[in-house]
Amino acid sequence: MATTTPTVTNVLHTDYQRSVAAYWNNNQQDPVNLRLGDIDGLYHHHYGIGEYEPSVLEGPQDTRDDRIITELHRLETLQAELLLDHLGDISPGDRVMDAGSGRGGTSFMAHQRFGCQVDGVTISEYQVEFANNQAQQRGVADQVKFHFANMLDTGFKAGSFRGIWTNETTMYVDLFSLFDEFSRLLEHGGRYVCITGCYNDVTGGRSKAVSRIDEHYICNIHPRSDYFKALAANNLVPINVVDLTSYTIPYWELRARSSVATGIEEPFLTAYREGSFHYLLITADRI
User: Fold this and answer.
1) Which tens digits make up the pLDDT trace of 33-47?
2) What is the CATH number of the domain that holds 128?
């Protein structure tokens, strides 16, 4: 089996990367992630899809917020399940990567579903420690490992992964550099799955609402076209593109009515409804 430890020691290459790492290291107690993850021990760092159950807004007022939190977590877990549905046939002997793995929720779901080895990489040392502690508690630390590593330069052996995914992390990096690294890491015929928000080239540059999202998360949302240009330049051929925009709006509508609302909900809803922002799932194979 290929080595499970990256060889790169200089993980953070730029001041921007250091600022992003500091953002995630310093937002350790963000209730948006922790309260939802506390429900079943799957801690996600992404959003949800699907219609929410209207009954969560009804019933006793004193338990209303708990019902909303539980429903938000169900929707974000559905999103992760959809991503894993598109990874294709993964066997227990395969190895997959969660690039920008956060606290590890989707990595644990992948191991539970496929029985394979999972490597998560993140530039947040806090997230690495949190996720590896979770792996120990779950008794899967020999198969699910999290690394303090840069997904642009992971240090893993070429061709060592059957599948790689990113879930709302590509807006922090240059797409051409990222997909060059993923193309190097994937075996021939290996699969990459991406779920991301991207701005709509047809409407021009970033809208005001998209710019507010960038400012809130210290990220750089890419135009939709750049994803396909960067994939094509790096031997990654899309085989499926799903527009999830209409499916994610209910999540944001419900979150805006919860105790974990941060104020960023309205820019997301505005951008999605006006068509300046899209929420896409892209599946591509390494040729």
Assistant:
1) 788 888 888 999 899
2) 3.40.50.150
